[in-house]
Amino acid sequence: xxxxxxxxxxxxxxxxxxxxxxxxxxxxxxxxxxxxxxxxxxxxxxxxxxxxxxxxxxxxxxxxxxxxxxxxxxxxxxxxxxxxxxxxxxxxxxxxxxxxxxxxxxxxxxxxxxxxxxxxxxxxxxxxxxxxxxxxxxxxxxxxxxxxxxxxxxxxxxxxxxxxxxxxxxxx
Length: 172
Description:
It comes from Theobroma cacao (Cacao). This is NBS/LRR resistance protein-like protein. Pfam families: NB-ARC (PF00931). Keywords: ATP-binding, Nucleotide-binding, Plant defense. One of its GO terms (molecular function) is ATP binding. The chain is mostly helical. It has 2 domains: 6-117, Rossmann fold, CATH 3.40.50; 129-171, no CATH class. The protein is 48% helix and 12% strand. The protein has 8 helices and 3 strands. It has a 3-stranded parallel sheet with strand order 1-2-3. It is elongated and about 65 Å long.
């Protein structure tokens, strides 16, 4: 579901890992609905402070990127907003193994993408009613709560948002 907080959670994970020395490199790439192999290759390479030649085809660039990642050592690659499955090999993404110390995390709305890319599914739950109300009040302002007329309206709004943080923030 869009707006449940997948990207927000990954930003927190990314920022927390920046403070630790668990990985030599943290790489973040937004894939998005209009997936483009060359753009993803360029995004990953630029975060490694490298460049890929625009003259070469994607297969050759994939081999170059794979070598860059191998030389990098341990890394965490976060692929955000993945809409359709694709081959890691076609992009040049090193397959994570226990031996190479590399990890890959992706966010997606699609269980099908998770299956097709052979990833482990971790579902982000909706907010519980109390958590949703707290988030909504943090955006609306706590000073609104003493008003009994507004309280029932706010409860209705929170209920309509169905526990989706983005909807609560926008409406708040």
